[in-house]
Design goal:
- The chain is mainly alpha-helical and 241 residues long.
- The protein has one domain: Arp2/3 complex 21 kDa subunit ARPC3 (Orthogonal Bundle), CATH 1.10.1760.
- 67% of the residues lie in helices and 3% in strands.
- Strands 1-2 form a two-stranded antiparallel sheet.
- The two termini are 25 Å apart.
Length: 241
């Protein structure tokens, strides 16, 4: 594993004969994170009833983004996870803008799919804003809690850190999204059921996925020769550089 001094003090860019550290799997994990995020947003156009739970379709896949968020922060550190979160934010915003523009443009003569398009991919500004705010606050809460707990526990009890960070992140995410997107347009009992169902389901998925999280973080730490501790990290979510 790289020592703290090695991770905290990388060699200056452009130094002759010095190669900056690189990672074999970081971009791959980031791509999967963004893909899960985008797919979840599209799938959220349908509400589902599964046993005692009522939630939008994106909830089936969205918890995986928090698992990837945990892995990114645990292995590569908060600062690199922050860049991935911002990448996902801008990709989601771009997708929403494109959907809005395409939906607003007049359909070609003879094309009968406009109503279906608007029903599935039609984006309203309120839902777009709700999705982006909830994602931003939830993901950064998750990453911050995990990074801080890793310092407090000296890297122990990964299961407790991943679950507790998800309890915080998913709670904020579910509450903000449902209230911003639907408050005043749907009965409050339905919104409460959706918030509770989303929250319980997402946290449950995270808990059940703990063995997989352990396996993936162990694999990446070994292959990347990295186990980052965020001593001295600036946790400002807006400091991307």
């Amino acid at each position: 594993m790289k020592t703290l001094m090695e991770t905290a003090s990388p060699s200056p860019a452009g130094s002759p004969g010095v190669k900056r550290p690189g990672y074999r799997y970081f971009e791959f994990v980031m791509a999967l994170f963004v893909a899960v995020l985008l797919i979840s947003n599209v799938a959220s156009s349908k509400f589902l009833r599964l046993g005692p739970f009522t939630f939008d379709g994106g909830t089936i896949l969205f918890p995986i983004s928090y698992i990837f968020g945990d892995i990114l922060t645990e292995v590569y550190g908060y600062a690199r996870s922050r860049r991935v979160i911002w990448t996902g934010f801008f990709c989601t915003a771009l997708m929403a803008i494109v959907f809005i523009i395409v939906g607003a443009l007049p359909p070609a003569e003879g094309w009968q799919g406009q109503q279906a398009y608007m029903a599935i991919l039609g984006q309203t500004p309120r839902i777009v804003v709700a999705s982006l705010i909830a994602y931003f606050v939830g993901e950064f809460s998750n990453s911050y809690v995990l990074a801080r707990m890793k310092l407090r526990t000296a890297g122990r009890w990964l299961w407790a850190r991943t679950i507790l960070s998800t309890v915080v992140g998913e709670g904020v995410d579910s509450l903000l999204f449902v209230l911003i997107a639907f408050y005043g347009t749907q009965p409050m009992p339905l919104l409460q059921a959706v918030i509770l169902s989303n929250y319980v389901f997402k946290v449950g998925v995270e808990a059940l996925a703990t063995p997989a999280t352990y396996a993936l973080t162990g694999f990446l730490k070994q292959r990347e020769n990295e186990d980052y501790y965020d001593y001295g990290t600036d946790f400002n979510p807006f400091r991307v550089g």
